[in-house]
Amino acid sequence: MSIKIGQKLPDSTLYKIGGNGPETIKFSSLFTNRKLAIFAMPGAFTPTCSRGHLPSIIETAERFSSKGIDEILCISVNDPHVVSAWGDITGATAAGITMLGDPLSEFTKAVGMEFDAPGVGFLARSKRYAMLVEDGFVKIFLPETARSTCDISGGKALLDLL
Asked: What is the pTM of this model?
């Protein structure tokens, strides 16, 4: 069962590339006393994620801070090196989006958003969604309902609800 509006996010370990290489991050350190826009995607460099979802966030990134958002997080079920390269290549990192890897699907499973599609090589991947989180509690949750689309979970969709 997936997380719901009003529930507190689980504290999980995520990964990013820092100045000295891979770093582990306790998710609670990111959401405590903060307002976050979180976007989750099945995989870095995948077609819908790279051509639609991430660009929609990059295009709207500047407007999130004017709505009181402290940080925009992009979570993908990939290792931190891949997620970091994806952020650099697409311009997401330059746009101020924090790129986080969930290579063990720990967070993804904890919020009930995992799926498998072995026919295309996806195992323990994240369903596509966006959410607004305040002090660790889900205020807005926008899970995508169709495959290969980001209409419900795109940057503009979440921004319009703030």
From this structure: 0.94
Q: Are 31 and 9 in contact (CB under 8 A)?
A: yes
Q: Residue 133 in 3-state DSSP?
A: strand
CA dist 76 and 100 (Å) reads 7
| Among 49, 131, 142, 159, the one annotated catalytic | 49
In the chain, beta strands by DSSP E: 13-18, 21-26, 35-41, 71-76, 97-101, 114-117, 122-126, 129-134, 137-143
pLDDT tens, residue by residue, 2-40: 999 999 999 999 999 999 999 999 999 999 999 999 999
- Is residue 4 within 8 Å of residue 141, measured between CB atoms? yes
Q: Quickly count: other Cβ atoms within 10 Å of residue 146's Cβ.
A: 9
**49 labelled catalytic:** yes
The answer to whether 72 and 162 have CB atoms below 8 angstroms apart is no
Residue 75 banded pLDDT, cuts 50, 70, 90: very high
